[in-house]
Amino acid sequence: MSTLLSFAIPFALGCYALASVLVLFRLVRGPRAQDRVFALDLLYFHAILVVMVIGMSHQSDHYFEIALAITLFGFVSTLAMAKFILRGEVIE
C-alpha cells in the first residue's frame, strides 16, 4: 500500500464518521418524516462507503459484496418507507 493511501484511508473514515454523526442528528431531530427517510438513506450510503474503504485497505473482494448487499437492502427499505409515507400502507 502506498504512503498516500495509508494516510487517505483513516482520513476518509474519519470524514465518514463525522458525516454520519451529523446525519444521525438529522435523523433524530428531523422536523418531518421525509427528512428522517432521507437521513436514513444517507446512513446506508455512508455504511456502503465505509465498507468499501475498509475493503480497499484490506485488499479483499468480500467487502465489496457486503457493500452490494447493503445497497440492495437500503434501496428496498427506502422505497418501502417512501411508499408508507405517501399512501399509509406498504403492501397493497
From TrEMBL:
<dbReference type="Pfam" id="PF04066">
    <property type="entry name" value="MrpF_PhaF"/>
</dbReference>
<keyword id="KW-0812">Transmembrane</keyword>
<protein>
    <submittedName>
        <fullName>K+/H+ antiporter subunit F</fullName>
    </submittedName>
</protein>
<feature type="transmembrane region" description="Helical">
    <location>
        <begin position="6"/>
        <end position="25"/>
    </location>
</feature>
<keyword id="KW-0472">Membrane</keyword>
<keyword id="KW-0813">Transport</keyword>
<feature type="transmembrane region" description="Helical">
    <location>
        <begin position="63"/>
        <end position="86"/>
    </location>
</feature>
<keyword id="KW-1133">Transmembrane helix</keyword>
<keyword id="KW-0050">Antiport</keyword>
<feature type="transmembrane region" description="Helical">
    <location>
        <begin position="37"/>
        <end position="57"/>
    </location>
</feature>
<dbReference type="InterPro" id="IPR007208">
    <property type="entry name" value="MrpF/PhaF-like"/>
</dbReference>
<comment type="similarity">
    <text>Belongs to the CPA3 antiporters (TC 2.A.63) subunit F family.</text>
</comment>
<keyword id="KW-1003">Cell membrane</keyword>
<keyword id="KW-0406">Ion transport</keyword>
